Amino acid sequence: MKTTAFIFISSISMALAQDKGQTLYQEGKFDEARTYYERILRNREKDDAARFGLGTSAYQQKDFETAARVLNNVMRTKDKSLQSKALYNIGTLFNEQQKMEESLAFFRKAIESDPLNEDAKVNYELLKRHLQQQQQDQQQNSNQNQDSKDQQNSQETKNQQQENQDNHQQDKDNQDQNQSGSDEEKDRQKQEQKEDQAQQGDEKNKDQKQKITEQTQEEGNDPKTDKQLQAEAILNALKDQEKINQKRQIAKAKSRKLEKDW
Fold first, then answer.
1. If 114 and its partner were Cys, which of 2, 62, 84, 159 is the partner (CB 3.0–4.6 Å)?
2. CA of 65: how far to CAs of 24, 47, 56, 93, in Å?
3. pTM higher than 0.70
4. 260 exposed, middle or buried (CB, 10 Å; 0-12, 13-18, 19+)?
C-alpha cells in the first residue's frame, strides 16, 4: 500500500542563472528543465544546485535510475538544506518502489541534516504510522489465523472424541446384540431339549402300550382299551406293593422270634 500525502519536491532556492530551469520545472516542462540543467552541468560539473534540479527533473520523467544516481551525488554537498532535500527525495524514490523501511530511514536522515525540513518531518510521521499500522494488522491477522487454527484443532479433537465415543457405543451395542443372540440360542436349545424329552416320553409310553397290546394279542384276547390298560397297570402295581408288604411282615416276624429265643 502506497503512503499518501508525500511531497516530492520541496521549495528550492537557485542562483539567478538557474531561474529558467526552475520555471520550466514548475510549468511541468520536465524535458526542457532537464535539458537546461544538463547544459549547465556541462559547464559547471560541481554545481550541486543544478545537479539537484537534474535529479528532480529525471524523477518526473520516470527515469528513476538517473534520479537516484544524481541525487546520491548531491547528498555529499556541504549545503545542509540542499543535502536534506536530496535525502528526502531519495526517500520518496524508495517509497515509490514499496521499500518502506529504506524510505523511512532517508526521511529520518533528511530531518537530521536539516531539522527545518517540514516536508521530511510530515512524511516521516505519516510513513512511520503507516508501518506501525501495517505491523499491527499483520499481528492481528497472525493472531486470527492462530485462533482459527486453534479452533480448527479443537474442533478436530472434539470430532475425534465423538467418533471414538460412537465407535465405543457401537461396539457395546454389538456386544449386547451378540449376547442377546446367544441367550436366545440357549433358550431355543433348552426348549428343543424339553421337546425332545417330551417326545421321548411319549414314544416310551407308546412302546409300553404297544407291548401290552402285542402281549394281549399273543394270548388270544381282544386288544384292550387305554382305560383297561391303565386299570391293569394299577392292579399290577397294587400286587407288587402287596408282595412288598408281605415280605416286610415276614421279616418282622423273624425278628421277633429271634428276640424270644434270645
1. 84
2. 22, 20, 12, 10
3. no
4. exposed
Question: Cβ contacts of residue 2 below 8 Å, gap of 6+?
Answer: 95, 96, 98
* Cβ 91 vs Cβ 107: under 8 Å: yes
Total residues belonging to the chain: 262
Residues 121, 113: Cα–Cα separation, whole Å: 12
Looking up cell 537557485, which residue turns up? 14
Q: Where along the chain do its domains lie?
A: 16-137, 227-262
By CB neighbour count within 10 A (0-12 exposed, 13-18 middle, 19+ buried), where does 107 fall? Answer: buried
CATH code of the region 16-137: 1.25.40.10
Structure confidence by residue, pLDDT tens digits, 194-230: 777 777 766 766 666 566 666 656 655 556 677 777 7
Q: Is the pLDDT of residue 161 over 80?
A: yes
Which 8-state DSSP code applies to residue 225?
Answer: P
